[in-house]
Structure formats: structure tokens, C-alpha cells
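Q: Start with the shorter request: fold the first protein.
A: Done. Sequence, then structure:
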Amino acid sequence: MKTAKRIFSFLSVVIVTVLFYNAINKKHLEKDSDTSKEPETQTHKTYKIKSLKLPENLNLAGERVPLEIPDVRERMERELLVNTYWQSNGLLLIKRANKYFPILEPLLKKYNLPDDFKFLALAESGFIDETSSAGAAGMWHFMKTTGKEYGLEINSNVDERYDIEKSTKVAAEYLKKSKERLGTWTLAAAAYNAGNYGISKRLKTQQVSSYYDALLPNETERYVFRILALKEIITNPKKYGFVFEEKDLYQLEESRTVKVDTAISNLAVFAKGFSMNYKELKIRNPWLRENKLNNKSRKLYHIKVPLE
């Protein structure tokens, strides 16, 4: 009997001890798994997301943006915020602009197009060699049909939408025709996105004559404001928090032009003859789309190669 009591007492102590430790462990687990309390950080002291003050005067090609209209102000602020706080993309655009604006600016002047349209080209392509989901390509993002309509050679071997000089000439022709048809550079810029017919039809239906008064598809409603935002940020980068040195910006390598009016069977071999490799040839001449130049018509092409 005494032995049974001793065993019972021992088991009782063991059970109480186990329950006690389980209770303690449970509390620790609940404490460790409690995610309701946010960890204390110093982020709020070092990182600020600030509301931006819109400039008093904004214009596209000299045409004033009516910021006193509430929805116009909101749409402008949206694009300025998006393009300011998408910091990595913004800095890359600033770097690439430094590379290609020096080429575009004299071409725009040559073809009598306002300088502000270099920001349209940047908004369209980001100055990278990518084809859009709709099939638009090159710095100015032309569709094949539009490019061919304006005289660009576009096929699997040669695609002049990627030729900066030729595509800029076509863009200038298109935009000047749009301006003549629609009345303003702002509407011409909108038509570059939505087409002349699309813009004309909506203006007529809504009985308005200004881009800022028209109700347009969402992409087109944002389009001109994105161009304006890029213009403002790239013109005043430090104002929007972009910090860099001149050496951080991209530069275009200097080139000279070689005239070719025959076929080239192997562009990799051709490149070596000018002290460069195939990749370097393609970077300088993205309009060459294959490792050969067919040129059955004996057309005169201008190929960029390194300086001697």
C-alpha cells in the first residue's frame, strides 16, 4: 500500500512538472509567433516619401499645361510621382538620355520639330532595343505598316526603324502632319499614341479642341503627362532627388561612316576588318538584323564603324 502511494505521488510530481514546462513553452511559442507587433526600425527617420510640388509653369513645345483644371493637375501629379519614385528606372532614363539626346537634338532641329519631342522618343522606347507587344520597334516605336508607309525599309534582313537618323526624319514628318491636321503640338503628341483618326473622332464627338478637355483612352490620357514628367525630371534631376556625377552617365562611342553598296555575306568577318567584333557592329548599327546584308538592289547603306 505504501509502495502504491509512493508511485502515485511520484507520478503526480512528474505530471505536474510536465504540464508546467508545457505551459511555459507554449507562452514562449506564442510570443515568438506573434506577428501583430511590427519590429522597431529606423526607416521612418532615414526615408521619406514626400508629396511633390508641381512647377508653376509647365509646357510642351511652348504650349501651356492648364494646371488650374483639377483633373489635369491630378494627372500631371500622378506621372511626376510615378516617374520620380520609380528611382531605378528614372536614373537609367537619365543615363540613357545623356547618350542619345546629343544625336536627337540636331536631328529635331534639322527637321523643324520642337526639341521637347526628344522626351516623346524616350517615353516611347526608353532608348532600349525592345519590340512592344503590338510590334512597334526602334527608338520611335514605329509599327511596320507606318514605317513602310513613310519609306523605311523593313524586313528580316534590314529594319530601318532602328536607324536613328532615318526614323527621326519619319517621326518628324508624322508629327508635323499631325500638328497641321489637329492644330497643336500637344494633340500631335497624343495622336502619336492614339492615331490621328482616333484623336480627331473623339474631339469631334465631344465638341472640344484641346487635349486637356478631351476624354480619351487611359493610355492616351497618361501619355502626354508622362512626356511632361520626363521633361521636368530630366531637366531638373537634383530637384527630384537624383544624385549622380557626370562620369556616371552613359556616352555614345564615336563612330565614322563607311558607305556600302554591295552585299555582305558575313557581318562578323566584316566587323573584324574594322577592328571590332560582331556585337560592337550591331550596337552601332541595330538596323542590321542578321549576320549578312543581302542588298540585291545595290542600295547605298551607311554603316558605322569605330574611328580609325
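Q: Next, the second protein, separately.
A: Sequence, then structure:
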Amino acid sequence: MTHISGEIEDMLEKSFNNERLSPKNGVKLFSTKELTILGMAADQVCKIKHPENYRTYIIDRNINYTNICTSGCKFCAFYKAVEHSDGYIIPKDILFKKIEETLALGGRQILMQGGLHPSLKLNFYEDLLESIKTKYNVHIHAFSPPEIVHFSKLNRIPVLNVIQQLKASGLDSIPGGGAEILVDRCRNLLSPNKCTAQEWLDVMREAHKLGMKTTATMMFGHIETIEERIEHLEKIRRLQDETGGFTAFIAWTFQPKNTQLAPSLSSKYKDIGLIGSFDYLKTVAITRLFLDNIPNIQASWVTQGAKIAQLSMKFGANDMGSTMIEENVVKAAGVSYQMDKEEIESLINDLGYEAKQRDLYYRVF
């Protein structure tokens, strides 16, 4: 490998040989400008982990059951305060219609998340899950860790019991949303009313102990340092060593428009939201090299668009994520990409792979 330092070359060799990179190695990889070489290394590691001749995607729908939220995250343009005229709680007939549309399009899963509503008790969510499972054969991937922690505090029930009760009512798996950066310096500035980094990890640990699978995420490109980005990845990797419960990792870039962190609103954050495709692809490649124990890395076309998402499949990603029949949170931040099943399949096929639909557990059909 010419054009790179011996130190970087040694790290990439370690990855090829399935030797673990240290956090210091991870930080060092971010310092290189040699994007193509990083991408080639991540692609090689991806092919070692996924020698199959196909790449995957899923058909699902992101249903937000409420936009009323007390968290007040500075990076969010979606939420509404309790008294806001545009606040809503989804009526069941509309929820059922959304599920039926998803099933009609070949979907087998719904992703259901919402704001931290101050007065909806646990029985509301239990009833929601039971009513869905009674009517439909659909996988429910729902309630990210901040929601679970919120339910726990609001109902004065331990997190473990909350997850047990939701699971008994029909919850199948937990999405990795609300992780942002798992460092409390960032969380205290961005989302002081949301769960701590440790609470997020504890929710996932409890879910994994109960045999539930979950995903892990990272929203980057706001106020975090490179060292904090790696600290986030290290915490995910450590928990995966302990439980093996994460099926996939998804990283996406912060979208600043319409948020309190929009560059035009604060000179303090003047560089925020300027993460482009170069840094996105570099981060995807490094996550593949660093997260040696997480089998699947998803592309984020929702924030990056189709072409960069396709390119990320040569930078370590092996999955195009969801068709995202409906998506509201990123859209509220002024970014609106859309892709249907045919376009996702075409992007995968163009890379020389067969496109296969999968479920949350990465079983293909």
C-alpha cells in the first residue's frame, strides 16, 4: 500500500488479519486523507465477513406514533411541545392503514418510534402493540432506548420490567435510535433531557439478556470530537463483546436545517452540519474496520442520497437499509431523499451483487 504511512498500513493489515484496532488506532485512521485506500481496506474486510454474492435491504416503514416530546433536543426539527397545535398521537385507524400499505408493498416490518410524551403510560404502548399483533403478522421494531428509559421513569418501573412487558405485548426488537454520540459531554449540550450514555447502553444490555436483538447507531458531524466518535464506537464494541445482541450498525450525518443547531443561528456552532460525503464515507469505512464484532454495516441513503449510499457499499457497508416508505424526522430537518424497492435493487445490482430482501435478523428471502 503506497502513499500511506507505515503506521496506517500496519493498522489496515491488522484489520485484514482480524486483529482488533485500539481506540488510538481508530483516532489515527481518521487523520488520514487517503480515502480510497481506507475504502479499499474496508471493502476487503467486508468481503471477508460477507463472501456471499448478494447484498441486502429491507422493506419497512418508519411510523412516528407521536411528535409530542419533552426532550427538546437541539438537533431535532421534528418534535412539538405538548401545547403545540401541530402535536399529535396517531389514531389506531391511521396506524392500521399505514401497516396495511407496508404489507401491500412487500414489507414485513414496521419501525415505530415517537417523542417522549409526558403523559402516555405504559398501558398505552402495551395496547398499541397488542392491537397490531392481533391484526397483522408483522415484525415490530420499536421504542429506542430514550423511549424505554422515559417509560421507566414515568411509570416508576425498572427498565428490565418495561422491556419484559413490552415484549410480552408484541415488541420484537429495539432500534438503536437516540444514541447520537454516547458521550455525556455531547449529550448534556445536545439533549440534556434525554437518557445518558450509560442508560442507553443499559437498555440494550437488558434487551439482549432477554434474547432480543437490537441495532446500534451513531449520528455524527455536530459537536463531537474525533476522539468522542471513537469512544462511541468502543462502547458499542464492548457491549457487543458482552452480549452479541447487535445485528447491525448505522451511522448518519447530522442534518442542521430547521434545528436549534443550524449554523445561521449560532456562531458558536458555525462549522456544524458541514459534514460531506468525504467524511461520511471515511466514517463508514472506519466503523467497518473498528467494529470487528458487528456483522452488518448499513448505508444511510436517507441522509446521503442514493449515489453516496451506493458508494458506501464499496466502503464497508453490506446493507442498503430500508426502503423507508415513510420518514419524518430527517425530512423535518430539510433533507428528503426517497427510494423505492426497484431503485435500491438497481443500485445493488450495478455493483455486481444480487439484491436480496432480508429481515431484522439478516435472514434473506
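Q: Describe the second briefly.
A: Residues 20-59+161-357 form a domain with the TIM Barrel fold (CATH 3.20.20.70). The chain is about 45% helix and 10% strand.
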